[in-house]
Write a structure and sequence with these properties.
Layout (H helix, E strand, L loop, with lengths): L1 H19 L4 H13 L3 H11 L7 H13 L3 H14 L9 H12 L1
Length: 110
């Protein structure tokens, strides 16, 4: 039950961040990721799609949307997102999950 509590805590934190910074790509993406983790795929996708349209979009946002699409078996859409992410991977930025993202892009685009 710890993982359930942790997911709920992550959800609460993501909602609080989103309420504080509703126009931030990263807070939208964090909310989307938390929603995806608790199984609310539809709202998660809405938040993640919104995050990738923001001016301050980060590679993480694109990666999280791609992971959601591939986890719901939408390969064509996942490939489009993977191609977009591939162009972002070499940008100098703080990108904690860069290596995971590179592996995912390689897997999706092979």
């Amino acid at each position: 039950h710890n993982s359930h509590a942790a997911r709920n805590r992550a959800m609460e934190e993501a909602r609080a961040s989103f309420e504080a910074y509703p126009n931030s790509a990263l807070t939208l993406a964090a909310l989307g990721a938390a929603l995806h983790a608790i199984g609310n795929v539809e709202e998660a996708e809405q938040r993640l799609r919104a995050s990738v349209t923001k001016d301050d979009v980060q590679p993480e946002c694109v990666y999280l949307l791609g992971r959601l699409l591939s986890s719901t078996n939408r390969e064509r859409e996942a490939k489009e997102v993977a191609r977009r992410l591939a162009t972002m991977l070499n940008q100098p930025s703080v990108f904690v999950t860069r290596e995971s993202a590179k592996s995912w892009v390689a897997e999706i685009l092979r």
